[in-house]
Amino acid sequence: MAPFSGQTQGGSAPDEPQRRIPELEEALRRAEDSSRNKSAFIANLSHEIRTPLNSIIGVANLFQGTRLDLEQKKFVEMLSTSARDLHRLVEELLDLSLIETGRLTLQSEPFPVRSNCSRTIRPLAVSIQERRLSLELQVDPAVPEYLRGDSARMSQILRNMVTNAIAFTPKGTIRVRVFLEEETESSANLHVTAGHPDGGTGAEKRRDTDYSNMERKDFSASFQGAGMGLLIARGIAEAMGGKLWTEFSGSGDRIIHFRASLGKIPSGEALPGKEEKSGKEIPAAAAPLPAEISILVVDDNRFNRSLARTILRKMGGPGWRVSLAESGSEALQLMEEQHFDLVFMDVQMPEMDGLECTRLVRKKETGRDRRSVIIAMTAYAMEGDRRMCLDAGMDDYIAKPVEAEELRTVISRNLA
C-alpha cells in the first residue's frame, strides 16, 4: 500500500483543522458575547430591583423606630424580613453571574477568625430556635487568632453551611468546628465543618459529594434558598483554591465540609480593630460624628431622596443641613452656589450621571481650598463598580439598599 500523501482523488484537500479555525473563533466570540450580555442583564436587573428595595427596607427601618402596637410591629417585621430575603436573592444572582464568568475577585486582608465565625452564625439564632435546635461553635486553640483572606466571603460560605445544616437537622445540635489541618510559615490550612455531630456516621454507608449533583428537590420548603446558596458557596470556595463538599448518610444526617488555605500574619503587622501599642480593641463606631455638616443627596428617585434626608436628619439632628438634587446638572448648580461637606451621589441618572458629575466637580475644585467628600450611593453592586466610582473621583462607595448603620460608618470613616 502506498504511503498516505495528504491527497485525494481530484486534487489536494484543504487541511481540515485549519479550515475550522475561523468557525471555532466565531463560536468562541458568540459564546463570550452571550456571557457578557447575560452578565450585563443581571447587573441591570439587580440595579432596577435594588432601587425600590432601598425605599422599602429604609421605610421599614424607620417604622421600627416609632411607637407601634403589637400587630403593627408584626406587620413591619414581615415586611422587613421579606424585603431582606429579596435582597439576598439579588445578591445570589450577582454572585452566580460572577462565578460563571470567572470574574469573582477576592480580598486579602487580616481578619479575626474566631469573632468572624461568631458574628456570622449569631443572626441564625432565630431559625435555630424556631426548629428547637441548639448550636455549638468550636474553634480549635491551634487556629491562629488572625489570618489573611476575604472575611466577607468566608462568612458567606459559613452562613450557607449552617443554613443548610439547619434544613437537614430535624432535632438535636448543630456543631460548627474550625480546626487547623496543617500550616507553613506563610499559610494555614483551615477545615470547617457544620452539621449534626453524628452526621455521616453509623451503620449506613457514607457517601461523599461535592454538591454539584445534589438536586434542589432535596431541600425543605422552609429553606428553599439553601440550595442556591450552597452552590454559590462551593464556587467561592473553589475561587479561593479550596473545596466544599457534603458528607451524609442514608438516615439524613450530614455534615458540610469546607477547606481553604489562608495567609498567616507576619509578626509586627498592624491588625484591624486593635491599637498598635496597647493591643486594646477599638469599637468600629467609636469615632464621633460631626455636630454640624452640610449634606447634598443627589438621586433621580424621589422616594430615595426623601428617605435619605429623613435618615440623615434623624442621625445628625438639627446641626445637619440636608439638601436634595434630582439630577447631576442640578447638583452642579447647587455646588456652585454653596459648599457641601458631604455629597451622596447616585451613579445612574438621566442626562448627566453621577460619574460625569463627579469628574466635573473635581475639575472645578482644582485650586480651591475646600473639597467636598463625594460618596457613591448606588444600586450598582457588581465587581468593579466600586473601582469605577473611585476612578471618577469619588471618595467612597455604599451599595443600595442602604442601612442607617452603614451610613453612619461611611460618614464617620470619611469625616471623623
UniProtKB/TrEMBL annotation:
Domain Response regulatory: 294-415
MF GO annotations: phosphorelay sensor kinase activity
Stored PROSITE patterns: HIS_KIN, RESPONSE_REGULATORY
Superkingdom of the organism of origin: Bacteria
InterPro entries registered for this protein in UniProt: CheY-like_superfamily (IPR011006), HATPase_C_sf (IPR036890), HATPase_dom (IPR003594), His_kinase_dom (IPR005467), HisK_dim/P_dom (IPR003661), HisK_dim/P_sf (IPR036097), Sig_transdc_resp-reg_receiver (IPR001789)
Biased composition (Polar residues): 1-11
Keyword Acetylation: no
Record key words, sorted: Kinase, Phosphoprotein, Transferase
Modification 4-aspartylphosphate, positions: D346
Stretches for region Disordered: 1-21, 189-211
Domain (Histidine kinase) ranges: 44-244
Name of the protein in question: Histidine kinase/DNA gyrase B/HSP90-like ATPase
